[in-house]
Design goal:
Elements: E1 3-7, E2 10-12, E3 18-25, E4 27-31, E5 34-39, E6 46-51, E7 57-59, E8 67-72, E9 77-82, E10 91-106, E11 109-120, E12 124-128
Parallel strand pairs: 2-12
Antiparallel strand pairs: 1-3, 3-9, 4-10, 5-6, 5-10, 6-7, 8-9, 10-11, 10-12
């Protein structure tokens, strides 16, 4: 099995910074696009940033120039560096992968290659408040 685990959320004052991490676990052979979404109370989940396997990044207009997405393919991890945080950035932040190739271990047999689409992490709370 595979899963995504986020970390790094917390409470920060306006103008402050936080760095979120999302690590994929399992016998993983490749990860396609990795992305960060967020959902504030009463709002729909929105795409914040995404990054392809070769490092091409894109951002929502609301975070351009303040947030930076990156990934370490060897560590199967994506990061979201958030600077100049505003109260309106307060939300639960979710990591997501559109496609992940992995191997499902079978006792006493060769692991079975599988794919998982639209994998999500459990979310991490980011609160920007004075």
């Amino acid at each position: 099995q595979v899963q995504l685990v986020e970390s790094g959320g917390g409470l920060v004052q306006p103008g402050g910074s936080l760095r979120l991490s999302c690590a994929a676990s399992g016998i993983i052979t490749s990860i396609n696009v990795m992305a960060w979404y967020r959902q504030a109370p009463g709002n729909q989940r929105e795409l914040v940033a995404s990054i392809t396997s070769d490092g091409s990044a894109s951002y929502a207009d609301s975070v351009k120039g303040r947030f930076t997405i990156s990934r370490d393919n060897a560590k199967k991890t994506t990061y979201l560096q958030m600077n100049s945080l505003k109260p309106e950035d307060t939300a639960v932040y979710y990591c997501s992968v559109d496609r992940i190739d992995y191997k499902d271990p079978i006792p006493n047999k060769d692991p079975i290659p599988k794919m998982w689409f639209n994998l999500w992490g459990q979310g991490t709370q980011v609160t920007v408040s004075s």
